[in-house]
Design a protein that fits this description.
heterodimer, A: 160 residues, Jelly Rolls, 4-stranded antiparallel β-sheet, globular, B: Elongation Factor Tu (Ef-tu), domain 3, 2 domains, 6-stranded antiparallel β-barrel, 16 strands
């Protein structure tokens, strides 16, 4: 069976559908396949955000450690989802732990390589930033919904 | 509309604040019901509360009740053998018949799974009439998930996907974490041939309906169940009135095209 190239795998990712073929050619040079065992830490809080990931298979949890409490899972990500945005924003450090919950396959993209290409080609940087902005806004909306705690006891119906 | 006496035949604690009561008639039983409808449960000396029917077993009607106030607290405190009054069934039903021939996507949040359970049971009994069935369930924490064993059985049915998520969890939870609408990313659908059902807090239903319409499902092909302040249940008192709509009579199940503007009306 022929293994797909990174370029071909990137083209299959919905996250990259708005990018041009020439963009994918450039990005492919920064990518490689990565595999993680269930329970393996992909990155940890405070570590340099040297990569971001496009999950192909498996599931990854984003955990926050709170002193005196058990670790809290704030979100889980699955196939075709983007893992990590901190590589875009200085000081380029992760703000949470990412742990493979299952055997996980991903495309790993080198952040230094990507940032360099975006600096060299601002139009590419803008298109990539638009794709990330969409993901970040979607996740912000989800977090807002989580913060609403919609399943909590509704005070307004307390006479019910 | 005189209440009919029913006796608590079975009582099962589902969650720390939620019980399923199996009620059997003492007097003449109520008329037949359809999934999505509700009954008024009268705890003697306390008052009535509107509770959706969460299923039936033989002559026993099931109501899954969350303790949120004086009325529901009194109902939840009833022991096996004790009596209460029932009026009903009231309101509209889930459009399971109209969904035949289509794929089905169900989004349930929290206690919202209870009103959907009889519809899901009906879909599975008539499994051949539907395409793929996706059941997406959200709860606050893992320990707040309803009907866990039954969901496992649903997942064993061919062509049925059950996906579960919670809003927050400790690292010991191996399942999905995120809002229930995030599970839509896992569902492959052709929106033009899907019927959607959503039940839960209204904010959750708004996002659920948006997630469905974003995938091409027509608002008229999405059922939501409104929960408003039902008192008389016969469209007379006006407590549940939203514009021209009485939720107790015209709802609680409405198509989203009808429900969307009503869901923007603030409760007074």
């Amino acid at each position: 069976m022929k293994h797909k190239s990174i370029r071909e795998l990137l083209a299959e990712q919905p996250f990259f559908h708005d990018l041009r073929d020439s963009d994918l050619d450039l990005l492919a040079g920064c990518g490689e396949n990565a595999h993680f065992r269930a329970g393996e830490t992909i990155f940890g809080t405070g570590e340099p955000a040297d990569y971001f990931y496009l999950i192909r298979t498996g599931r990854v949890s984003l955990d926050i450690h709170a002193p005196g409490r058990a670790d809290i899972v704030i979100s889980t990500l699955g196939p075709d989802e983007v893992l990590g945005a901190s590589w875009l924003i200085p000081p380029y450090h992760w703000n949470f732990d990412a742990i493979a919950r299952e055997e996980t396959g991903a495309i790993r993209l080198d952040a230094t390589c990507l940032r360099g290409k975006c600096e060299d080609d601002p139009a590419l940087g803008y298109r990539l930033m638009k794709s990330f902005a969409q993901v970040i806004v979607d996740r912000l909306q989800r977090v807002r919904l989580q913060l609403l705690d919609v399943y909590g006891t509704p005070a307004a119906r307390a006479n019910g | 509309m005189v209440p009919t006496r029913y006796r608590v035949a079975t009582k099962r604690q589902e969650l720390t604040d939620t019980w399923t009561l199996g009620l059997e008639p003492v007097d003449e039983p109520l008329e037949p019901w359809s999934p999505g409808q509700f009954n008024m449960l009268w705890a003697f000396g306390v008052g009535e509360v509107a509770i959706s029917i969460s299923g039936s077993e033989d002559d026993t009607l099931l109501h899954t009740v969350r303790r949120v106030g004086a009325g529901t607290e009194a109902v939840c405190a009833l022991a096996e053998g004790e009596m209460l009054g029932l009026r009903g069934p009231f309101g509209s039903r889930w459009r399971t018949v109209e969904a035949r021939g289509k794929d089905v996507v169900i989004l349930a949040g929290g206690i919202g799974l209870a009103p959907l359970r009889p519809a899901i049971r009906q879909l599975l009994l008539d499994r051949g009439s539907y395409g793929r069935i996706s059941i997406l369930v959200g709860a606050r924490h893992p320990e707040d998930l309803l009907f866990v064993e039954e969901m496992s059985r649903w997942a064993e049915s061919p062509g049925v996907d059950v996906e579960i998520t919670v809003d927050t969890a400790s690292s010991g939870w191996s399942g999905h974490v995120g809002v229930v609408t995030s599970l839509m990313d896992r569902v492959e659908i052709d929106g033009s041939s899907v019927h959607g059902f959503a039940c839960g807090p209204e904010v959750m239903m708004r996002f659920a309906a948006k997630a469905l319409t974003d995938r091409g499902v027509a608002p008229t092909a999405i059922d939501v169940s409104l929960e408003r302040n039902m008192k008389c249940a016969i469209a007379q008192c006006g407590h549940c009135q939203l514009g021209p709509t009485f939720v107790c009579r015209d709802g609680p199940v409405l198509d989203y095209a009808t429900a969307q503007p009503l869901m923007m009306v603030r409760e007074r």
